[in-house]
Amino acid sequence: MSSRPKNPVVLIPARLASMRLPHKPLADIHGVAMIVHVWRRAMEADLGPVVVAAGEAEIVAAVEAAGGRAVLTRPDHASGSDRIFEALTRIDPQGRHDAIVNVQGDLPTIAPATIRASLMPLDIAAVDIATLAAEIIRDEEKTNPNVVKAVISMRDPVRRIGRALYFTRAVAPTGEGPLYHHIGLYTYRRAALMRFVQLPPAPLEKRERLEQLRALEADMRIDVAVVDAVPLGVDTPADLDRARDLLKPGR
Predict the structure, then answer these.
(1) Distance of CA 53 to the CA centre of its chain
(2) Contact present, 181 and 134 (Cβ < 8 Å)
(3) Residues 88-97: contacts with CB within 8 Å, 24+ apart?
(4) Which CATH superfamily hosts domain 1-106?
């Protein structure tokens, strides 16, 4: 019998502070704020309610003007996980939602099917957190420290789902075989998110600068669904230009 959650909610953390692209969530993409594009993709995934967890009132206003739902959270959260947990306690104090899909607010071109794939690993009751990866095709990505690699034990090659053994910025594993580009989209069981945000930063997390290692060091299980492509993350003006091209009306 599947243990997949029955009542998920999609939460999208967003804040205005960004070193490389100031006010990123409100960046204009053909007359629509980027955060609204992300909200639309999440709505199209049709997993459940979609709520933007906003660090500032300007983000709330942009989402609500487009017909969406947003909740204002503290602006000083250290991570998106902390921000979505605050939003969850505000919108669902009764604990009705049993899974939380955390979609980053800088993925305006993400495919709805990619978002849906993040629930698949939770068919296994022992899995606390689900995430995504795509096989690395370009050689330069294999050695790029900005490309986080997921080291996966592929338990279900037919459905392309495996257990995460580690995440690293280094080339790993070595030898013959695929390498996987980790995609920072997570789906938490509710209890797992509650536990995760209460954990202190872990030694490997601080060394690699990868928050998900906190969960692995605490013996939480993360499984990975492999998808066909890495969605475009908008971090720079060049990324924004690319997103505008991909979302050009009529394309």
Answers:
(1) 13
(2) yes
(3) 88/9, 88/11, 88/190, 88/193, 91/9, 91/51, 92/9, 95/190, 96/7, 97/7, 97/8, 97/9, 97/48, 97/49, 97/190
(4) Spore Coat Polysaccharide Biosynthesis Protein SpsA; Chain A (3.90.550.10)
CB 4 within 8 A of CB 97: no
Q: Are 184 and 200 in contact (CB under 8 A)?
A: no
Separation CA 141–CA 150 (nearest Å):
13
What type of residue is 89? T
> How many other C-beta atoms lie within 10 A of the C-beta of residue 207?
11
Q: Is 248 helix (H, G, I), strand (E, B) or coil?
A: coil
- Give the tens place of pLDDT for each residue, 36-72: 999 999 999 999 999 999 999 999 999 999 999 999 9
pTM of the model: 0.95
**Nearest-angstrom CA–CA distance, 179 and 163:** 14
Q: Where are the domains of the chain?
A: 1-106
What is d(CA 51, CA 43) in angstroms, rounded to the nearest whole number? 10
Q: What is the DSSP letter of 105?
A: T
Q: What span, in angstroms and rounded, lies between the C-alpha atoms of 219 and 204?
A: 13
> Phi-psi category of 18—alpha, beta or left, where left has phi over 0 and alpha has psi -120 to 50?
beta
